[in-house]
Amino acid sequence: MSQTFDVIVIGGGPGGYIAAIRAAQLGFKVACIDEWKNAAGGPAPGGTCTNVGCIPSKALLQSSEHFEHATHHFAEHGISTGTVKMDVAKMVARKDAVVKQNNDGILYLFKKNKVSFFHGRGSFARAFEGGYEIAVAGDKPDTLVAKQVIVATGSNARALPGVAFDEVNVLSNDGALRLGAVPKKLAVIGSGVIGLEMGSVWRRLGAEVTVLEGLPTFLGAVDEQIAKEAKKAFDKQGLKIELGVKVGEIKTGKKGVSIAYTDAKGDGKALEADKLIVSIGRVPNTIGLNAEAVGLKLDDRGAIVVDDECKTNLPGVWAVGDVVRGPMLAHKAEEEGVAVAERIAGQHGHVNFNTIPWVIYTSPEIAWVGRTEQQLKADGVAYKAGTFPFLANGRARALGDTTGMVKFLADAKTDEILGVHIVGPMASELIAEAVVAMEFKASAEDIARICHAHPSLSEATKEAALAVDKRTLNF
Ligand code: FAD
Ligand code: NAI
């Protein structure tokens, strides 16, 4: 016998579980199906983000940063530590415990909000007048029926053609987050977000890290001035980044991995490494969804085709998060999930794509919202720029971390903030003020006139806003 719901959500990552909770808050009878298994085979909702993405990567970034502080920076504070050792197994176990807290937290939230959770794979069985039948294949096979279905099946790591992830030598984000020991030599292909974050973790712990990037520019989506500043910092740390390479044959053996490549000058080279992380982007995941059974339309990248409101080509079927167009970010997936639940309830859910923040959790952190200087130039927009270096910020000096700057870009005529770009300490937290400002269509002058606590890193934000009008007070 099938069970009937108002809304069925397939996928329990940030897009899916948040959509399920919001739909339940709005009074719907909701089911959420997720197939992720923990090591014991039990449910582990939270998707890529919780299990092998945002949360575990930030746990390892934190542990490795503590290690780097202990080995390189404590001495300048007068703290002597003797020999500092890293227990990788303990670090990874801590990360696993953080992941489990998040998995359990989501199961608790489902109970609290009366969302029925099904552990297994959900697939379209058939469409019928008045709804869809969804089969659940798992420990307890089931059939669910609903009028409204939200697909939030996420994404998977993209492999290099002919080089499958074995998670022993050739690692995706999954293997990169559970290495048992620090590799002596680590190669990374792709200097995007994962390459830089995971490269940073293992470099801080002692690996010699070489990142091979296909494009000739470093972090092309980031404001050029900010990317240049970040590159300088990574070079100083010893993170080797080679741009404009063409990766050739990759061989794996008992001793590790050998990567043949052509460098930017066209010279043939070989890189020997103990482990290789391939981080060249992610592909939308619809494996096992049986989209064909109901005629759900995919594009040529395999993403589910949706309109601005996350509606698919089928009535009552919606899709959100990594499986659709747009940036592959947890907070973008969440916002879409909330908006869809509200639209199903007849409300006017809305996602502002112009104010979605990006953060790269390296040290220094890189964060931005809105348009870059190169985008404004390309769009022919007249703008004013203002920057303020952390070197001139008292709190940054006290922290001992004065790398980087805050940069404001504002409309030349109206002074409306068009983009804010930060490279430096706690950029991930500082960017929130800029997001709020842009959401409220603030001008640079608005931020410049707001009282910011002293001493705080946020004063650099205020000063960068003042710099737009060439009137910084501390620089
Ligand atoms: P997912 O999180 O991928 O969840 C999809 C879920 O659906 C999974 O649990 C999957 O098992 C399940 N599923 C799939 N098919 C089915 C099916 N047929 N039946 C049942 N269940 C199914 N983003 C940030 O914003 N900040 C970060 O710091 C960040 N760090 C990251 C670090 C790494 C290493 C990686 C890989 C990604 C990171 N991301 C980060 C990106 C973020 O993880 C994704 O954007 C986000 O998880 C997308 O959410 P989602 O709900 O669309 O999909
Ligand atoms: P990415 O898109 O950020 O970077 C991939 C990089 O690989 C690019 O610079 C690209 O030019 C390069 N590349 C592609 N093919 C290549 C090839 N054959 N040889 C050499 N270089 C090649 O993808 P990444 O790092 O895999 O991350 C995937 C996504 O996950 C991110 O785009 C982001 O959406 C999300 N993510 C977000 C994080 C955050 O918000 N802090 C952290 C990690 C991931």
Description:
There is one protein chain. This protein is an alpha/beta fold and 475 residues long. The protein has a five-stranded mixed beta barrel with strand order 1-2-3-4-5. Strands 7-14-8-9-10 form a five-stranded parallel beta sheet. Strands 17-18-21-20-19 form a five-stranded antiparallel beta sheet, sandwiched between helices. The protein folds into three domains: 224 residues, FAD/NAD(P)-binding domain; 110 residues, FAD/NAD(P)-binding domain (3-Layer(bba) Sandwich); 114 residues, 2-Layer Sandwich (Enolase-like, domain 1), CATH 3.30.390.30. It is built from 13 helices and 21 strands. 32% of the residues lie in helices and 26% in strands. The structure holds flavin-adenine dinucleotide and 1,4-dihydronicotinamide adenine dinucleotide. The site of 1,4-dihydronicotinamide adenine dinucleotide (NAI) has 24 residues, from helix 6 and strand 17.
